[in-house]
Amino acid sequence: MKTESSFSSARWIIQKALPVSAIFAVAACTASDAPVSAILPGEAIPALSDANRGRFLLGRALFERIATQDEGLGPLYNQDRCSSCHDRPTVGGASSASVRVLKATRFMDGRCDRLEALGGDNIQLRVTELFAAHGFGAEEIPLEATASGYVTAPSLFGLGLIEAIPDSVLLSIADPEDRDGDGISGRLPRMADQRSARFGRKGDAASVEDFVESALRFELGFTTPRYPEEEARNGVPIPEGVDPMPDPEIDAETLGLLTDYVRFLGAPAPEFLGRGPAADSVSQGEALFDQIGCTQCHRPELRTGNAEEPVLRDQVIRLYSDLLLHDFGNGAGDLCGSDALPGEFRTPPLWGLRYREHFLHDGSVTDLVEVIDRHSGEAILARVRFQGLAPQAQMMVLRFLRSL
Ligand code: HEC
Ligand code: HEC
After folding, report:
1. Which residues, in sequence order, are CB contacts of 171 under 8 Å at separation 6+?
2. Average pLDDT score over residue span 261-273
3. Contacts of 81 (CB under 8 A, 6+ apart)
4. Is the pLDDT of residue 159 over 90?
5. Residue 14 pLDDT more than 80?
6. 351 lines ligand 2 (CB under 6 A)
7. Residue 329 Cα to chain centre, angstroms
8. Residue 363 alpha carbon, nearest atom of ligand 2
9. How far is CA 83 from CA 220, 266, 307, in A?
10. Does the CB atom of residue 323 touch ligand 2 within 6 A?
């Protein structure tokens, strides 16, 4: 139920985050002074309009702001602000290895069940003081779950560009039946409403806005215009009196600003090496990365389509991903997605890899050679080819990866 008071409280969140006049003053000077090519992680896409740069900055202030239970945080939640999990190397980035989300699912008879009736697959590990005062603790892994595991937060850089790639591009590189017989059969997952899902480590969301909305719901415990009811604790509805803010706790404008912040985060450019031996070995490494078949999934380039915002339109983006689901092999899989089996993961973009401290969906690996060793399933041939390279050639591939 939408009430006047929830709307004005949510607007208050924005104003408290930073005075609007200050933000537009910043927007006016950074837009003209910023060199277009030098994009550092966490910055907006260059050449954004002033209006959208203003929205980016307002959204960033919300992203970093600590929420309280009086504003709608909880009663079940994982962290009290977005940037608690997305802060490496800076705001909007990935999580540190120690900040992970616990998920649990049930996989039986070839079917995935995200245990929606038992509180969903995201096991919230914190509760507000008010909820605790009523005797409630964190969620627990339901007995019905067959597996549980951790997921780390990926960096959010370049997501608006990823969103602007037309479905037709992804469908043209998908090969769900492996008709070309190369052992690689990427597929574009579908949501229950048949939209394609290119966001999330297991292909779980169709748009940036949808993902931001689920982060608000499941990581911070806010109710939203489309989902005005609090998620039940392990399936048991939240009792009266533990969650004072009227629902929805977030209004459409706040959701829109957070979404635009994420949408306009720029994509990190590769390290600039100029000319010389270092640059040569990186470009040889890139050629080897292609020759051994890494690019069959980590596609160097994709083209965006006809986006509303001009800076997202018709761009060739170097993300090193096909955004499709692949079987990553035995042992990798502990979690289900809405359309992904336990062993299936979306190829992660590799741009910005040099800023990352840990790898793979659970952040369990810190060494790039071990990352490659863990590639199995559809990626097994590429892994074996890498292992067959001479040590010097392997070094070049690693140097290339570290330059991204
Ligand atoms: C408790 C940690 C945590 C918090 C807090 C958090 N996130 Fe995330 N975020 C994650 C994890 C983990 C994933 C990956 C989940 C997956 O793919 O299954 C993720 C993924 C995302 C993605 C999708 C990235 C992609 O490449 O597909 C977006 C967008 C996102 N978060 C936005 C936000 C926003 C906005 C907030 C604040 C409202 C937020 N997150 C708060 C942990 C967090
Ligand atoms: C069949 C598709 C496929 C092929 C081929 C493939 N990868 Fe991957 N790669 C993936 C998937 C899927 C993941 C994510 C697995 C996970 O999160 O657990 C991944 C993860 C990675 C990561 C870690 C990224 C991160 O953000 O954690 C790196 C680095 C990487 N691959 C490099 C390579 C290299 C080098 C090769 C060639 C030897 C290669 N990949 C071949 C699908 C593939």
Report:
1. 188
2. 95
3. 63, 64, 65, 66, 67, 220
4. yes
5. no
6. no
7. 22
8. 27
9. 11, 17, 27
10. no
346 touches ligand 1 (CB under 6 Å)? no
Task: Residue 171: name the closest of 202, 205, 195, 201 by CA.
Answer: 195
CA 80 / ligand 1 centre spacing (Å): 13
| The two structure tokens encoding residue 62 | 């919300």
Length of the chain: 404
The C-alpha torsion from 198 through 199 and 204 to 210, rounded to 10°, is: -110
Task: Give the number of C-alpha atoms closer than 13 A to the C-alpha of residue 188, restricted to the C-beta side.
Answer: 17
Q: How far apart are the CA of 63 and the centre of ligand 2, in A?
A: 29
CA 14 to ligand 1 center in whole angstroms:
20
- Mean pLDDT, rounded, for 37-58: 90
Give the integer Cα–Cα distance in Å for 385 and 381: 6
CB-count exposure of residue 192 (10 Å: 0-12, 13-18, 19+): exposed
Instruction: State how far the alpha carbon of 86 is from the alpha carbons of 37, 327, 397, in Å.
Output: 24, 27, 28
115 in ligand 1 pocket by Cβ < 6 Å? no
Structure tokens at 58: 């307002």
**The two three-digit tokens of residue 223, written as one number:** 């109710």
Distance CA 172, CA 180 (A): 13
- pLDDT for 300: 98
Q: Which amino acid is at 62?
A: L
pLDDT at 19: 45
CB 64 within 8 A of CB 332: no
Tokens of 257: 């600003």
| CA pair distance 36, 293, nearest whole angstrom | 33
Burial of 183 (C-beta count, 10 Å sphere; 0-12/13-18/19+): middle
Q: With a cut of 80, say whether residue 40 has pLDDT above it.
A: yes
Give me 47's structure tokens: 């050449």
Which amino acid belongs to residue 300?
Answer: P
Structure tokens at 49: 């309009």
- Rounded CA gap, 399 and 25, in Å? 41
Tokens of 88: 């490496």
Is there a contact between 324 and 174 (Cβ–Cβ < 8 Å)?
A: yes
